[in-house]
Amino acid sequence: MAAWVISEVEVLDDERAARYRELAQDSIARYGGRYLARSAVPAALEGRWPDERRLVIVEFPSMQRAREWYASPEYSAALAVRQEALARRLLLVESLE
Question: Are 81 and 20 a contacting pair, CB within 8 Å?
Answer without folding.
Answer: yes
